[in-house]
């Protein structure tokens, strides 16, 4: 039996299911998928991160007496070629977005594909209600998993020590050969995944209090690791529970929001492109407003600071994500799908299910989403979570000498900053009316 170990969203050797389930002679591979890369900008930050993570994985496997063979091609071409080399089957982790499902079906027709749950904690096809239907609301979904969320430890995969490397001639492509340039990543990503986890363990006690304050470093900073599997969700769950069980609940709950959104996309795949709750909104087609939102030129300081920081770093604090998405979908009345697609292009930790679920939540169109009448006031939000405008001023030097109180008052900046493209009260009332009409029409 000759097996191909296809690393995808599991770029690590610790707690990796395919390294546990593999046997005998193996060929570990990673594919820089041309189907995906051809749609990305040449300076996409994710490619730099993934490239470095793949090289680190290669080194880790070499220390085990194995190796990692790195391809730049389509998966279909790679596996057609490897089948002719006499390999019998492929081991990989599960992935649930639409492209991954189509890709895996295609590869399974070339070589038998064995998939293992490794990027998430639960199999979305198994945790159903008593009537056999999927949960649609987070709280009962979360409560149904109390047997898991209340546990102290989830079993982790062990490496099979008896694996033998199947030698293969293959040259590792450079970033330049992939068609990308190396870009600067946020400072915290220069640390190892384990060091990032260790850093967060020191913050867990204050996590619930600090996670909404976007000028503080109070979040986990583990989204990229979860997305690309440089840390497994089991490892993170176990280490956080072990380090501070008493204060871990707030973070564990957030970890399961990620599970919930993956669960929803699995059971309702049309929600990737359609309003999950079926309402029809008369969205604005104002492209100029959308571009100003993208570029951070709306005239609303907290929105502009968040979007400029995002465009520069590929990172955005969760509270800021809620504020800018509410502004786009409610105040500007622009379709959530446009915002989701823009985030998909820029987010370092972009994950289809979480991004789609979060945008549908903000737009009041998704599963267990915010009620349509709950609309974030960006000025009140910035006053509450950035009172001294520390974050805003760090991004927008043109406001560094302005009294922070004025930054949090609509229209108070006058000649100190550009005028807002929309009146908050007017746009709020407009959104309330249009969403109410849409909801009544559906009923």
TrEMBL record:
The keyword Coiled coil applies. InterPro entries: Crypto/Photolyase_FAD-like_sf (IPR036134), Crypto/Photolyase_N_sf (IPR036155), Cryptochr/Photolyase_FAD-bd (IPR005101), Cryptochrome/DNA_photolyase_1 (IPR002081), DNA_photolyase_1_CS_C (IPR018394), DNA_photolyase_N (IPR006050), Rossmann-like_a/b/a_fold (IPR014729). Its cofactor is FAD; (6R)-5,10-methylene-5,6,7,8-tetrahydrofolate. FAD binds at residues 207, 251, 254-261. Binds 1 FAD per subunit. Belongs to the DNA photolyase family. PANTHER family: CRYPTOCHROME, CRYPTOCHROME CIRCADIAN CLOCK 5 ISOFORM X1. Keywords: Chromophore, Coiled coil, FAD, Flavoprotein, Lyase. Its EC number is 4.1.99.3. It is an enzyme of class 4 (lyase). Residues 1-121 form the Photolyase/cryptochrome alpha/beta domain. The record marks 283, 336, 359 as: Electron transfer via tryptophanyl radical. Residues 190-217 form a coiled coil. One of its GO terms (biological process) is response to stress. This is Deoxyribodipyrimidine photo-lyase. GO terms for molecular function: deoxyribodipyrimidine photo-lyase activity; DNA binding; FAD binding. The keyword Lyase applies. PROSITE patterns: DNA_PHOTOLYASES_1_2, PHR_CRY_ALPHA_BETA.
């Amino acid at each position: 039996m000759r097996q191909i170990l296809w690393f995808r969203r599991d770029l690590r050797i610790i707690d990796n299911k395919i390294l546990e389930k593999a046997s005998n002679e193996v060929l570990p591979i990673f594919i820089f998928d041309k189907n995906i890369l051809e749609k990305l900008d040449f300076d996409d930050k994710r490619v730099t991160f993934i490239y470095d993570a793949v090289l680190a994985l290669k080194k880790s496997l070499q220390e085990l007496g194995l190796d990692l063979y790195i391809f730049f091609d389509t998966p279909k071409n790679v596996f057609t070629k490897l089948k002719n080399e006499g390999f019998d089957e492929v081991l990989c982790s599960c992935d649930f977005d639409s492209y991954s499902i189509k890709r895996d079906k295609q590869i399974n027709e070339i070589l038998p594909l064995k998939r293992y749950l490794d990027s998430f904690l639960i199999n979305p096809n198994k945790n159903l209600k008593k009537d056999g239907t999927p949960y649609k609301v987070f709280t009962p979904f979360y409560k149904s998993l109390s047997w898991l969320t209340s546990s102290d430890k989830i079993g982790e995969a062990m490496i099979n020590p008896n694996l033998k490397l199947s030698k293969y001639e293959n040259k590792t492509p450079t970033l330049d050969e992939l068609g990308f340039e190396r870009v600067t990543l946020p400072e915290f990503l220069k640390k190892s995944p384990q060091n990032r986890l260790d850093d967060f363990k020191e913050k867990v006690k204050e996590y619930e209090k600090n996670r909404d304050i976007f000028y503080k470093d109070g979040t986990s900073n583990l989204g990229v690791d979860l997305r690309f599997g440089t840390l497994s969700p089991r490892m993170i769950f176990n280490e956080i529970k072990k380090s501070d069980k008493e204060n871990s609940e707030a973070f564990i709950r957030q970890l399961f929001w990620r599970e919930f959104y993956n669960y929803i996309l699995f059971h309702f795949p049309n929600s990737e492109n359609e309003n999950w709750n079926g309402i029809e909104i008369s969205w604005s087609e104002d492209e100029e407003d959308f571009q100003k939102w993208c570029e951070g030129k709306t005239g609303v300081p907290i929105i502009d600071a968040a979007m400029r920081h995002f465009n520069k770093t590929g990172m955005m604090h969760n509270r800021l994500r809620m504020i800018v998405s509410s502004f786009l979908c409610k105040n500007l009345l622009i379709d959530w799908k446009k915002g989701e697609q823009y985030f998909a292009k820029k987010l370092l930790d972009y994950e289809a299910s979480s991004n789609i679920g979060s945008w549908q939540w903000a737009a009041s169109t998704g599963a267990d989403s915010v009620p349509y009448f709950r609309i974030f006031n960006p000025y009140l939000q910035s006053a509450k979570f950035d009172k001294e405008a520390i974050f805003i001023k760090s991004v927008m030097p043109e406001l560094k000498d302005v009294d922070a109180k004025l930054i949090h008052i609509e229209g108070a900046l006058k000649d100190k900053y550009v005028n807002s493209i929309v009146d908050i009260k007017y746009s709020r009332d407009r959104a309330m009316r249009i969403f109410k009409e849409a909801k009544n029409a559906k009923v």
